[in-house]
Design goal:
Strand order of the largest sheet: 1-2-3-4
Order of helices and strands: HEEEHEH
Length: 90
Amino acid sequence: MVRESTVESYLHSRVKALGGTTFKIAPTTVGLPDRMVILPGGHIHLIELKTEVGRLSPVQKLLHEKLSDLGVQVFTLYGKLDVDDWIMCH
């Protein structure tokens, strides 16, 4: 099984290939997304990464809803295939 850290590294390499970068968000608040992705043109995205069988915790769901209520979209990606699909859309 692929580890979540492997999915994070994969996302970073794919974003870097597009000319962007990623930053690991320090877990100072429980439920924060894993990565902030900045793409060329100043497009900023918050990404929660999971393995193919991972699940969001109740705290993550609650915080992602709170962010959504503020107009911030959090993308939850499950494994490398979801990363590839997300990259194709951005």
